[in-house]
Amino acid sequence: MKKVELAVIGAGPAGLCAAIEGAKHGLQVTLIDENIRAGGQLFKQIHKFFGSGVHRAGIRGVDIGSQLLDETEKAGVEVMLDTVVWGLFEDKVLALVHEGRSTQLSAERIILAAGATENALAFPGWTLPGVMGAGAAQTMMNMHRVMPGKKAIMVGSGNVGLIVGYQLIQAGIKLELLVEAAPEIGGYSVHASKLARNGVKIFTSTTIKEARGDERVESAVTVSVDENWNPVPGTEREHEVDMVCLAVGLSPLIELARLAGCGFKYLSELGGHVPLHDEKMETTQPGIYVAGDIAGIDEASTAMEEGRIAALAAAESLGRLGGEEADALKKSARKRMEEFWDGSFGRRVKASKESLSVKE
Amino acid sequence: MKSADVAVIGGGAVGSSIAYRLAEAGVEVILLERGSVCSGTSGATFAWVGAHGQRPFSYYQLRKASLDLFPDISRCLGFDVEYRPQGSLILLEDEAEFRAAQREVSELKEEGNQIDLLEPSELYALEPGLRAGFQGATYCPLGGSLNPFRLVCGYQRRARELGACIPGNTEVQEIRVRDGRVHSVITDSGDIRVERVVNAAGVHAPHVGRMVGLDVPVRPVRGQILVSEPLPPVISHILDDVRQTPSGNLLVGRLDEEAGYQNVCTPEGIGALASRARKIMPLTEKVHFIRAYSGLRPMPADELPILGETREVKGFFNAVMHSGITLSAVVGVLMAQLIKEGEAEIPLESYSPRRFQH
Description:
heterodimer, A: alpha/beta, seven-stranded mixed β-sheet, five-stranded parallel β-sheet, 9 helices, 27% strand, B: alpha+beta, D-Amino Acid Oxidase, Chain A, domain 2, four-stranded mixed β-sheet
């Protein structure tokens, strides 16, 4: 069985940064991803990142992705693409499958950076072609250059709904309206204003009731909801669209952490069940770390810092990094995260993340 | 202090069935399970209910008595447990196995055991999807499979309707004995004054036994099971190590491993099961396996059920066995009779815990 010092699972922003940081400090690193291309969601993020300069704000996700791939190569990370990790067994043995063949890999340290999956919403007609996750629409448009529809409704006004909504317009799709079940817009108002300026109707306290059509979506019915989230009869409205985009949140992809026997906590603000972890991103299973959305849904900017912290901790525990140097590096990564969190959204995320901390 | 006539410890198939039958008999019963429904062995089973070639004959009869109850069980419970009568096949790989089976089948038949020997042509007529080259099979028409989650839920739902108390997530920490009799059960959510305790804790039965200073000679045997993606119907019988669920998934099982209480899947185990599947059904080479699970099955020292009251502690009953899903139906009936009437319609003396005393 092949042996490595550090295996990083998931080559999105968290995993790439973890792999680069680990290799920088002398670890022999294998980075594994089930997709045929590394970068996770970065390559479909054609918008500029927020935050400040240290968070590469103002740079588009796709460019951050290219930079990180470059660094990964220079750092000497072994990258295994099109490779699914289907098992995590005792003594940190990973089971992989590539081109239909199963192999095993034993790792001294593991960083789980598997990311998240989009939530769905069930309503009559939700299985009709034309109903899709906002992330799926984004992948079709920005990566595969395929128009997912002509006239759309967006469900959900978090940053994903707002940003992808704008990208639909950029791709030449008419965004008829955006509905939000809560009484307030969920994401940043700067993104919502952009949509409003482009003539998108935004209805709050409104949700989707039904998608109609024979072979595919031909229209969508919306309905107002009261303060208890119950539909208000008589407020139904039918909109002629061929596409329903769902941006109703993400859930951490925690299967591997479950297999590893990690402890969990349920925190709805972070997307559901999240592995308990300490300041070094180490889970309750010694030598297994988490970084990025698996550690609680947040932004790519913090995912990258978490990846670095986890790799620094792994390098330190394997004696590649003095305690003082490691502490200083982890501290500065944590400081960048804290700065990023310094807003009302961030403060909520930060508080939730702190409640996950494993007491030593 | 809360009270009940009987506290059943262990909410798997066996304990839940006993609670159901006790409630049906009008006995005030509380079922104590530290996890949730099917969180232990009953949720990690192959769920083949059968009596294929079982010995001794009295044990075969006990299993058969249970199998006789399954066709009607969904109606009794008012809840569909997805029981399907299928019969079972144990494949014979070579000439030597065939000859050994020939002798065994004729002995078993003489005892009265329902079993037949199939020639290869008969086997392949029944299951055309098998790999060529098997030398035949032994065939038992009894039994089939069911959905163990629905079975345990069904027992518990019906028990509740009949008045049983099933709090869930309640761990027994201690059992108090006074003057040689069970007196009360101490749980993490309060004490319960009881007349009797039934130890239906399966692989954890020795732990419960130690609470009253008794040895329950049971050890855990680990099984691992591999689950395929759903397929169109490809086999209709239960094979010794493969069956197909109503939703089309193949279940490939079931290793017998001595691994203590290590309830985990291993890469070696999963690999062995995948090879086994390939050896039996060529089509599995192209099938995706989507999941694997492991479970600990209780194995009594002499492999036969342990049913009945202990001599040392009055009011303390054991109901611990391998094949708990198969046996649950009849064991519920018999244990309820034994507890309420002092004797059961099928004599249980040979299964008494007293047999282990020297």
